[in-house]
Every structure is written in C-alpha cells, then in structure tokens.
Amino acid sequence: MIKASEERVFELIAAYGAEPGGWPEDERDAVKATLVADPDLFAEALAEAKALDAALLAEQVPDFDPALADRILAAAPKPKSAGALASILTWRLPARRWPAGATLASLMVGLVSGYAYAGNTTLVTYDASDEVYVSLFGEDTGLTWLEEGLVE
Amino acid sequence: MSAESEIEQVRRAAAGDRAAQAALVHRHMPVIFRVSYRLLQDRAEAEDVTQETFLRVWKKLSEWEPRASFSSWACTIAVNLSRDRLRKKKPILMDELPEQIDHALQPDAELASNQAVARIETQIAALPDRQREALSLCALEGMGNKEAAEAMGVTVHALEGLLGRARRSLRATLNVERDR
Predict the structure, then answer these.
(1) Inter-chain contact B171–A15, Cβ cutoff 8 Å?
(2) What is the pLDDT of residues B156-176, one digit of tens each?
(3) What is the pLDDT of residues B51-78, one digit of tens each?
(4) CB distance from B171 to chain A under 8 Å?
(5) How far, in Å, CA of A45 to CA of A48, rounded?
C-alpha cells in the first residue's frame, strides 16, 4: 500500500477537513494508510478539523422562491422539430408571396401545356408525303374513290 | 448520475425535451442558488444570478462538452456572474453591511444554537471572496477538488491553498469564541 507523506496528510486535513469523503479521490487510500500507521500524530489536527466540519454543517441558506424553477423553465429551449418544419413552410409559402407564386405557376402551366399542344398539332397535320401525293394525283380521298367504285 | 446519462439528459434538454429540462433544473438549481447566495449574501440577487445562469445554460446547452461535468460548468457561470455583481457592489458594500448581533444578550438555549448558526454564517460571509468560493464549492457543496478548481478557474494547488486559509481563519474564530 502506498502511503502519503505526513506533510501531505496535514495539508489535506487542513484544506478538506476530517472526512475522508472530502479528500481527493486519487489520494484517499494513501492518506488513510498514513493515518492508520500513526494515528496519534494526526489526532489533534483531525479533532480540530472535525469541530469545524460540524460547525459548517450548521450553516443555513435561505429558501429560494418556489416559482424560480418555473421562471427558469419558461425560458428553456423549445422542441426543434415542429419549429423547424413551421419555419420551412413559412419561408417557402409565406402569405405575402402568394400573388407572385401564383403568377409564376400560371406562367409555367401555360408554357408547358402550350408546348405540348403545339407538338401534337404538328404531328397530326403536317406530313411531307401528303404534299407529294396531292401534287401528283390532286385532291383525293379514299372515300371518293370508294364511292366511284360502288357506282360502277 | 453517470456521465453517460448526464450527457443524454443534456442532449435531450437541448433538443427541447421538457422533462429533461425540468430534471436539470431541479437537480442543479438549488446548488447554483446556494453557491450564489454565499457569494452575494443576498437572496434576491442570488435568485437573479441563478435565473441568469440558466438563461446562459439554455443558450449554450447544445455547445456543452462533457469534458467538464454539467454541475461544474453551471457553477462556473454562476461564480462568474456573482463575481461581476460583487465587483459592482464593492464600493458601497461597507455602507450596507448589517449590524452585528450582540450574542451575549440572548441566553436561551435555542437562541444560543441559532446564534451559533448565525455566527458561522457571518464568519463565512466575512471571508475573502475567493476563499468563500472555494469553501462553498468543496466543503459545503461537496464538489470534487478538480471540479471546484475548474469552476473557479484556478489550479487544484491554488484551490487547496484557498481552502486551507479559509478553514484556518474559521477555526481561529471558533477557538477564540470557545475560549471566551
């Protein structure tokens, strides 16, 4: 067992008192070993320290206001998840931004649908082979040809 | 409380968990109040400092690092806030000191016991600020030497010196009274 020096034991009793629980944890066992080895040497210092420890126990501090905890908790951080979502929504869709947002959305819908409609029309009405056919054989349709055949 | 559960409690409190916040307040507020009261010797001011300490705690909670215990971190804030107030109070302090009670005029046993309590409190209050801080954290709140030294911003060696001087001074007063 490692023992603390006598000088160190006196220092610790003078600083921390007679209670081993108050001594530094990493030196406690070494101090106890020194005390056990020569109890008479430290008896007076321990008795004086004990008297002061007892006097300190008598110290009283007034009670605090029972509402103090409530006041402190009222200022505590609020849950973040709901607040963060709300702030994102507020930033994305603020009331004052609705007119500008709606205008932009209408413009986009118009552009997209207009582009799609124009593409379909071109595919249905324009065919280069039709033009060649008409220039060679004139205006003709399958229906006219069928009607003539039926008459014959 | 284990270090891990304290870390978890602080993490939940920082995220807005009301139960964790309440647990932190109920666990640490009395210590912070007592430490502040011993330094300031004024209940209302100690309450203000306690509240202000937690305001700072709430603000910095997400930045707290477990290298120091929550208790010593909070006490560091409280000690610094109390020191600031003491610095502002110092010039007028002498005019505001309460009159000392004449203990010799009250012979009743219960009163005598109350006087003994009042005496030790008066003696603690009369210690130099740093000695009072050291005594409050270690001897009266049972804080470990490393924790207390960190809360005060001094070395463990310096803390022991302050504690030794504080106790020597109190012991001398006790011996004088006992010899009367």
Answers:
(1) no
(2) 999 999 999 999 999 888 776
(3) 999 999 999 988 888 888 899 999 999 9
(4) yes
(5) 5
B3 vs A11, higher pLDDT: A11
Residue numbers in B near A9 (CB within 8 A): none
Chain A CB contacts of B117 under 8 Å are 58-60
B interface test, pick of A64, A71, A81 with most B CB neighbours within 10 Å: A64
Chain A residue with the nearest C-alpha to that of B163: A15
Please, are residues B109 and B69 in contact by the beta-carbon 8 Å criterion?
no
3-state per-residue secondary structure call for chain A:
CCCCCHHHHHHHHHHHCCCHHHCCCCCHHHHHHHHHHCHHHHHHHHHHHHHHHHHHHCCCCCCCCCCHHHHHHHCCCCCHHHHHHHHHHHHHCCHHHHHHHHHHHHHHHHHHHHHHHHHHHHHHHCCHHHHHHHHHHCCCCHHHHHHHHHHC
Residue B31: count other Cβ atoms within 10 Å of its Cβ.
20
Cα B177 from Cα B180, distance rounded (Å) = 5
Tally C-beta pairs within 8 A across A and B.
115
Q: What is this structure's pTM?
A: 0.69
